[in-house]
Amino acid sequence: MAEYEESHKAVWPEMLQALRETGWSNYSLFLRPDGLLIGYLETEDFERAKSEMAKREVNARWQHAMSELFEIPAGVHPDSTMMPIKEVFHLA
Question: Catalytic residue at 8?
Answer without folding.
Answer: yes
